[in-house]
Amino acid sequence: PDKFTQTLRSSGKEPVENTYTGVPLSAALLAVDQAILDNTSAVIVKAVDGYTIAYPIDEVLRENHLFLVWERDGRPLGTKDEGGSGPLLVIPRQDEFGQRWCKFAIEAELR
What we know:
There is one protein chain. This protein is mainly β. The protein contains 2 helices and 8 strands, in the order E-E-H-E-E-H-E-E-E-E. Strands 1, 2, 3, 4, 5, 6, 7 and 8 form an 8-stranded antiparallel sheet that branches. Strand 1 (about 1-10) and strand 2 form a beta hairpin. The longest helix has 8 residues, at about 25-30.
């Protein structure tokens, strides 16, 4: 797994910097099947609260960009019911603001 520091910037709140542990989303998908991304144009990530976001395949494959994360500051993210942001979190590292982060992630669909 990779560890990296990322600052969450959102409107109306002070920026928050944390250290996350995770892997590139593409690596997680390719670990399931080396050909899984063939003929895929987007990866749709769904969250337990109904939030859904589509990441175009060029973003999924961009180096050091989309990460599937399970720890923040060395501790599990925790579930929505526990007041956390997990079980998984998708972070687009090269985006300046956090509106495209997907907390509570539970499913990925390839299209």
